[in-house]
């Protein structure tokens, strides 16, 4: 088969525990994916970033609608002909996937998808490349886990990877607990309160534009007073950094209004703190886990030689579904 490698022909597929995304073209790294599927439509092909069910994962890639008809992401949702496929695939995967899993993935794509080329890349590296850097710390706030990965000159420092079992799922549950305790919201739902106040509503609130954000200045005063430790490199980066825009001030007790299932409801000020468990897992009873700030510090401090740590502190990349929440950069 003869074909021309064109940037617009490449297909990029990003695999996640909550959803899988696909799109065509690598010429613009900021373009949104053209296909997004929630993995729950198939089952649980991935669990905590590990392959849980090969059959479901392949079904998700093929997008089966019946036992005899296969509607694939590559050949149904994207304008690609299987018989004459000139679209190589870039598949981004978690760092925890093994060589054996790589081999099986390769077999699936070449034998079933008939792709002319396949490159399996690790997600933190692709996130860093997308920002135009080759060294830095990638903070991936996913649905089931939060991963912190240090990368030096395009090489992942595997022993520096920190994984927290607190992520978007816990944010949903934390928000839901506050929603159910909100007496004004319960009164606004009326008789349907027990039916409508569920995780689906919590996700709707979290994803609604302009409703939820990450609280700014979380425990700043306590950290300043109680912690005197200076992390090498951080002070230098802070001193050299240009002045940032003013941190937005969050009104203390305002309620946000939104419409859900034909009725208008209001959400209390707890909507600013749904991601706080990631920074302080003790809020949800996870007393043995470290918070995100400590995980970032541990990841950087395990990298040698010490001189490279300054470069890592200069490039902190936040990605994953949790990166979409407003205010996370100031936090």
From TrEMBL:
Q: Superkingdom of the source? A: Eukaryota
- Which Pfam families does the UniProt record give? Actin
Report the sequence similarity comment from the record: Belongs to the actin family.
PANTHER family hit by this protein: ACTIN (PTHR11937)
- Record-given protein name: Actin family
Say which species the protein is native to. Answer: Jimgerdemannia flammicorona
């Amino acid at each position: 088969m003869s074909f021309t490698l064109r940037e617009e022909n490449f297909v990029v597929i990003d695999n996640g525990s909550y959803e899988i995304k696909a799109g065509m073209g690598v010429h613009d790294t900021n373009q949104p994916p053209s296909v997004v599927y929630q993995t729950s439509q198939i089952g649980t092909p991935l669990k905590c970033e590990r392959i849980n069910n090969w059959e479901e994962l392949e079904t998700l890639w093929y997008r089966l609608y019946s036992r005899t008809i296969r509607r694939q992401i590559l050949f149904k949702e994207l304008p690609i002909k299987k018989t004459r496929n000139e679209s190589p695939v870039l598949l981004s995967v978690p760092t925890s996937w093994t060589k054996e899993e790589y081999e099986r993935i390769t077999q699936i794509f070449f034998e079933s998808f008939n792709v002319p080329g396949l490159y399996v890349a690790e997600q933190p590296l692709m996130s860093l490349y997308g920002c135009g850097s080759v060294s830095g710390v990638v903070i991936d706030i996913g649905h089931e886990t939060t991963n912190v990965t240090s990368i030096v000159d395009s090489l992942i420092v595997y022993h520096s990877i920190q994984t927290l079992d607190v992520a978007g799922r816990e944010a949903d549950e934390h928000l839901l607990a506050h929603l159910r305790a909100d007496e004004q919201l319960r009164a606004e739902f009326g008789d349907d309160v027990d039916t409508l106040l569920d995780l689906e509503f919590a996700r709707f609130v979290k994803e609604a534009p302009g409703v939820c954000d990450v609280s700014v200045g979380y425990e700043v005063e306590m950290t300043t007073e109680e912690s005197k430790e200076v992390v090498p490199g951080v002070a230098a980066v802070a001193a050299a950094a240009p002045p940032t825009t003013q941190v937005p001030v969050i009104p203390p007790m305002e309620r946000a209004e939104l419409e859900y299932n034909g009725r208008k409801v209001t959400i209390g000020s707890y909507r600013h703190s749904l991601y706080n468990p990631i920074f302080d897992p003790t809020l949800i009873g996870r007393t043995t886990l470290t918070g995100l700030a400590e995980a970032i510090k541990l990841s950087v401090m395990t990298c040698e030689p010490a001189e490279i740590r300054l470069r890592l502190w200069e490039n902190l990349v936040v990605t994953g579904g949790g990166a979409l929440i407003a205010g996370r950069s100031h936090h």
